[in-house]
Write a structure and sequence with these properties.
CATH topology: Spore Coat Polysaccharide Biosynthesis Protein SpsA, Chain A
Strand order of the largest sheet: 5-4-1-6-8-7-9
Order of helices and strands: EEEHEHEHEHEEHHEH
Distance between the termini: 42 Å
Shape: globular
Number of strands: 9
CATH architecture: Alpha-Beta Complex
Largest sheet: 7 strands, mixed
Radius of gyration: 16 Å
Helix content: 25-40%
Structural class: alpha/beta
Length: 199
Protein backbone atom coordinates (compact mmCIF):
# COMPACT_ATOMS: atom_id res chain seq x y z
CA UNK A 1 0.00 0.00 0.00
CA UNK A 2 1.43 3.35 -1.06
CA UNK A 3 -0.02 6.11 1.12
CA UNK A 4 -1.39 9.20 -0.60
CA UNK A 5 0.58 12.26 0.50
CA UNK A 6 -1.30 15.39 1.50
CA UNK A 7 0.71 17.34 -1.10
CA UNK A 8 -0.78 15.08 -3.81
CA UNK A 9 -4.33 16.18 -2.94
CA UNK A 10 -6.12 19.33 -4.11
CA UNK A 11 -9.13 20.38 -2.03
CA UNK A 12 -12.23 21.84 -3.69
CA UNK A 13 -15.11 23.59 -1.92
CA UNK A 14 -18.27 23.27 -4.00
CA UNK A 15 -20.18 26.57 -3.92
CA UNK A 16 -21.64 26.70 -7.42
CA UNK A 17 -25.26 25.74 -6.82
CA UNK A 18 -28.45 27.73 -7.31
CA UNK A 19 -29.37 27.71 -3.61
CA UNK A 20 -32.92 27.00 -4.72
CA UNK A 21 -34.03 25.51 -1.39
CA UNK A 22 -32.74 28.66 0.32
CA UNK A 23 -34.72 31.04 -1.88
CA UNK A 24 -32.10 31.34 -4.62
CA UNK A 25 -29.45 33.01 -2.47
CA UNK A 26 -25.77 32.23 -2.97
CA UNK A 27 -25.47 29.65 -0.21
CA UNK A 28 -21.69 29.83 0.17
CA UNK A 29 -21.89 33.52 1.05
CA UNK A 30 -24.51 33.14 3.78
CA UNK A 31 -23.34 34.17 7.22
CA UNK A 32 -22.34 31.46 9.66
CA UNK A 33 -21.12 32.85 12.98
CA UNK A 34 -19.79 35.97 11.31
CA UNK A 35 -18.08 34.28 8.36
CA UNK A 36 -19.42 33.11 4.96
CA UNK A 37 -20.26 29.39 4.92
CA UNK A 38 -17.82 28.68 2.08
CA UNK A 39 -14.96 30.31 3.98
CA UNK A 40 -15.70 28.11 7.01
CA UNK A 41 -15.51 25.02 4.80
CA UNK A 42 -12.35 26.27 3.10
CA UNK A 43 -10.56 26.93 6.40
CA UNK A 44 -11.50 23.47 7.65
CA UNK A 45 -10.29 21.85 4.46
CA UNK A 46 -6.99 23.69 3.91
CA UNK A 47 -4.99 21.99 6.71
CA UNK A 48 -6.04 18.61 5.28
CA UNK A 49 -4.78 19.12 1.70
CA UNK A 50 -1.77 20.38 -0.24
CA UNK A 51 -3.62 23.15 -2.08
CA UNK A 52 -7.21 24.38 -2.25
CA UNK A 53 -9.66 26.08 -4.60
CA UNK A 54 -13.32 27.01 -4.89
CA UNK A 55 -16.04 26.18 -7.40
CA UNK A 56 -18.53 29.07 -7.84
CA UNK A 57 -20.79 30.37 -10.61
CA UNK A 58 -21.72 33.87 -9.37
CA UNK A 59 -20.39 36.59 -7.06
CA UNK A 60 -16.91 35.51 -8.12
CA UNK A 61 -15.24 38.60 -6.64
CA UNK A 62 -16.56 37.68 -3.19
CA UNK A 63 -15.19 34.17 -3.53
CA UNK A 64 -11.85 35.36 -4.92
CA UNK A 65 -11.48 37.45 -1.74
CA UNK A 66 -11.19 34.16 0.17
CA UNK A 67 -7.64 33.85 -1.16
CA UNK A 68 -7.70 30.72 -3.35
CA UNK A 69 -8.33 30.17 -7.08
CA UNK A 70 -12.02 30.24 -8.05
CA UNK A 71 -13.36 28.30 -11.03
CA UNK A 72 -16.79 28.33 -12.65
CA UNK A 73 -18.45 25.27 -14.17
CA UNK A 74 -17.16 24.38 -17.62
CA UNK A 75 -20.60 22.83 -18.31
CA UNK A 76 -23.31 25.50 -18.52
CA UNK A 77 -26.70 25.57 -16.88
CA UNK A 78 -26.05 24.76 -13.21
CA UNK A 79 -25.59 21.05 -13.91
CA UNK A 80 -25.21 20.21 -10.22
CA UNK A 81 -22.31 19.10 -8.04
CA UNK A 82 -20.86 16.83 -10.73
CA UNK A 83 -20.25 19.90 -12.90
CA UNK A 84 -18.29 21.52 -10.09
CA UNK A 85 -16.43 18.26 -9.59
CA UNK A 86 -15.49 18.16 -13.28
CA UNK A 87 -14.17 21.73 -13.11
CA UNK A 88 -12.03 20.75 -10.12
CA UNK A 89 -10.66 17.71 -11.95
CA UNK A 90 -9.80 19.87 -14.95
CA UNK A 91 -7.91 22.47 -12.90
CA UNK A 92 -6.22 20.34 -10.23
CA UNK A 93 -2.46 19.89 -10.69
CA UNK A 94 -2.25 16.89 -8.37
CA UNK A 95 -3.08 13.21 -8.79
CA UNK A 96 -6.02 13.45 -6.40
CA UNK A 97 -8.93 15.84 -5.77
CA UNK A 98 -11.14 15.92 -2.68
CA UNK A 99 -14.46 17.76 -2.60
CA UNK A 100 -16.60 19.16 0.19
CA UNK A 101 -19.82 21.20 -0.11
CA UNK A 102 -19.90 24.79 1.11
CA UNK A 103 -22.96 24.20 3.32
CA UNK A 104 -21.42 21.69 5.75
CA UNK A 105 -18.95 23.71 7.84
CA UNK A 106 -18.33 21.11 10.58
CA UNK A 107 -17.21 18.10 8.52
CA UNK A 108 -14.56 15.92 10.24
CA UNK A 109 -11.05 17.31 10.58
CA UNK A 110 -9.69 13.88 9.65
CA UNK A 111 -11.93 13.51 6.59
CA UNK A 112 -9.18 13.62 3.97
CA UNK A 113 -6.74 11.42 5.89
CA UNK A 114 -9.35 8.70 6.30
CA UNK A 115 -10.51 8.86 2.67
CA UNK A 116 -6.90 8.74 1.45
CA UNK A 117 -6.05 5.82 3.71
CA UNK A 118 -9.04 3.82 2.42
CA UNK A 119 -8.35 4.65 -1.24
CA UNK A 120 -4.74 3.52 -0.90
CA UNK A 121 -5.59 0.36 1.04
CA UNK A 122 -8.33 -0.73 -1.38
CA UNK A 123 -6.69 0.44 -4.63
CA UNK A 124 -9.79 2.57 -5.23
CA UNK A 125 -10.18 5.41 -7.72
CA UNK A 126 -12.87 7.04 -5.57
CA UNK A 127 -13.28 7.08 -1.78
CA UNK A 128 -16.45 8.64 -0.41
CA UNK A 129 -17.70 9.32 3.08
CA UNK A 130 -20.70 7.53 4.54
CA UNK A 131 -22.49 7.98 7.85
CA UNK A 132 -24.11 5.43 10.12
CA UNK A 133 -27.76 6.30 10.67
CA UNK A 134 -30.27 3.89 12.22
CA UNK A 135 -27.78 1.08 11.79
CA UNK A 136 -27.42 1.66 8.05
CA UNK A 137 -24.66 3.23 5.99
CA UNK A 138 -25.75 6.33 4.10
CA UNK A 139 -23.41 7.62 1.39
CA UNK A 140 -22.31 11.26 1.54
CA UNK A 141 -21.09 11.37 -2.08
CA UNK A 142 -20.10 15.05 -2.27
CA UNK A 143 -17.44 14.28 0.35
CA UNK A 144 -15.21 12.32 -1.97
CA UNK A 145 -11.60 11.81 -2.88
CA UNK A 146 -10.92 10.79 -6.46
CA UNK A 147 -8.19 10.47 -9.05
CA UNK A 148 -7.93 13.49 -11.32
CA UNK A 149 -7.46 11.11 -14.27
CA UNK A 150 -11.20 10.43 -14.10
CA UNK A 151 -11.99 13.78 -15.78
CA UNK A 152 -12.63 12.33 -19.29
CA UNK A 153 -15.04 9.73 -17.86
CA UNK A 154 -17.00 12.39 -15.96
CA UNK A 155 -17.09 14.74 -18.97
CA UNK A 156 -18.55 11.99 -21.16
CA UNK A 157 -21.12 11.17 -18.46
CA UNK A 158 -22.27 14.81 -18.20
CA UNK A 159 -22.29 15.31 -21.96
CA UNK A 160 -24.66 12.33 -22.18
CA UNK A 161 -27.08 14.33 -20.02
CA UNK A 162 -26.54 12.30 -16.88
CA UNK A 163 -26.41 14.01 -13.47
CA UNK A 164 -26.59 11.35 -10.75
CA UNK A 165 -23.49 11.21 -8.56
CA UNK A 166 -23.88 7.58 -7.53
CA UNK A 167 -24.52 6.41 -11.07
CA UNK A 168 -21.22 7.86 -12.25
CA UNK A 169 -19.11 6.73 -9.29
CA UNK A 170 -20.50 3.19 -9.68
CA UNK A 171 -18.60 2.96 -12.97
CA UNK A 172 -15.28 3.11 -11.10
CA UNK A 173 -13.48 1.31 -8.30
CA UNK A 174 -14.90 2.98 -5.22
CA UNK A 175 -14.86 2.50 -1.49
CA UNK A 176 -17.10 3.94 1.22
CA UNK A 177 -15.58 5.15 4.47
CA UNK A 178 -17.87 5.06 7.50
CA UNK A 179 -17.91 8.03 9.89
CA UNK A 180 -19.75 7.57 13.16
CA UNK A 181 -20.54 11.25 13.78
CA UNK A 182 -23.44 11.87 11.40
CA UNK A 183 -23.94 15.36 12.91
CA UNK A 184 -20.59 16.45 11.43
CA UNK A 185 -22.17 16.09 7.99
CA UNK A 186 -25.26 18.20 8.78
CA UNK A 187 -25.76 20.58 5.88
CA UNK A 188 -27.76 23.77 5.52
CA UNK A 189 -30.04 23.41 2.50
CA UNK A 190 -32.72 25.75 3.87
CA UNK A 191 -32.79 28.92 5.95
CA UNK A 192 -34.13 26.91 8.91
CA UNK A 193 -31.22 24.47 8.66
CA UNK A 194 -28.79 27.37 8.52
CA UNK A 195 -30.31 28.68 11.76
CA UNK A 196 -29.88 25.21 13.31
CA UNK A 197 -26.17 25.31 12.42
CA UNK A 198 -25.70 28.48 14.45
CA UNK A 199 -26.57 26.61 17.65
Amino acid sequence: MNPIAREDITGLVLAGGRGSRMGGVDKGLQDHRGTPLALHALRRLQPQVGTAMLSANRNLTDYEAMGVPVWSDSIEGYAGPLAGLLTGLEHARTDWLVTVPCDTPDFPSDLVDRLAEAAAAQGAEIAMAATREDGKLRAQPVFCLLRTGLAPSLLAFLQAGERKFGQWTAQHRRVQVAFDDAAAFFNANTSDELRQLQG
